[in-house]
Amino acid sequence: MALNPLRQSLQDAGMRAFDAGDGFKPVADAAIDDFRAARADLERKVRNGELTLRTARSKAVEIAGRLAGELARRADERKTAHRPFFDRLVATIDHRRKVRASQPIEQLQRETNRMIAKLLVEQQLQNRSREFEAKTYVRSVIGGDPAPTLDNLLAFHEAASDAGDEAAREWARRKLEEFRPHTLDPEAQAKIDSACDRPDAINPRITRRYLDAIRDRSPETLEEFVAEAVRTKDANACAAAYLAARAGDEGLRPRWVRVLLDSLGEFPDAALEALRKLEAETASEEAQAARTHADFALRKIEAEARLADLQPPTPEEIRRQERLAGLAPAAPGEAIGLALGRRGMLPEDFETESTPTLEFEGEGSNEFTQF
Description:
Blueprint: H1 7-19, H2 25-47, H3 53-77, H4 84-101, H5 105-127, H6 129-136, E1 137-138, E2 147-148, H7 150-163, H8 166-179, H9 186-195, H10 204-214, H11 219-232, H12 235-246, H13 255-262, H14 269-304, H15 315-326, E3 328-329, E4 342-343, H16 347-352
Parallel strand pairs: 3-4
Antiparallel strand pairs: 1-2
Helix pairs in contact: 1-14, 2-3, 2-14, 3-14, 4-14, 5-8, 7-8, 7-9, 10-12, 11-12, 11-13, 12-14
């Protein structure tokens, strides 16, 4: 059995806190510092005989309980913390749902036409699959079943895009997505991602590429990027612009960020839903990290509140302290090695020591008194 019964729980809580984010760590560290300052004062009073060890432990437990309640409250506040971007995003999604619930017949007809076009593409994919395979599949020299090559698929996708053949283009995208796990070349993967970019769907890799491309750009360039992303309804570009704005300084709101927030209502549905899910997951992770750091801090405070290493002074030590307190303190610079009637400054002497003031020779004089 370990000498410290709280050692294992402290170790487990410390490992969880190490893996969690650092957002709540300064708050937890501040609570630990506050408790240690109070504990040091209690230990000083016990050593000086002002408090008994039992009373000091009782006060330490009381202080620990108060800090525990404060930490728990601060951690719970992370769940309902005000997030301007998330609140604006949720309001936009709710407004769009309400509009669609009461949309006119024309809007319903456009949505129906879009679904019919999508079904027609799926039907063509089934009926023309042999045609597409004949243009892209090749037989290996050593035998085996025919299979497409990356160059053939990329060339076929480019030709389908130029011809406006949406069914052929979608078939090439799906084959390229199946091909991607089998290639390790970063350049080839980048080509596949560019070909598989669907403006109405989120691809995390493409969003990350957009985000890397606009990082550290000028506000004017970012404003143009936001306008183009909204105009083309590119879900990946819209999501990247939102993430870039969200990662900026909360105290500063450049014009391009305000333009982005005002344009949320024009974002594609895929971008809004992906961002809402990301924000919800981030909020949940931050709240969990706050609870983890708070739990670790509370366990440390609980362990230190026991004052296990503190021992009350013996009667001889108390009498010695009283004798020292009765001696006059030595003046600054005065040697006390052989001065039996003098002592060094005690902590309470420093607390009551007054700050010297400067005196003038006379009223209206600018010369200091010579000491």
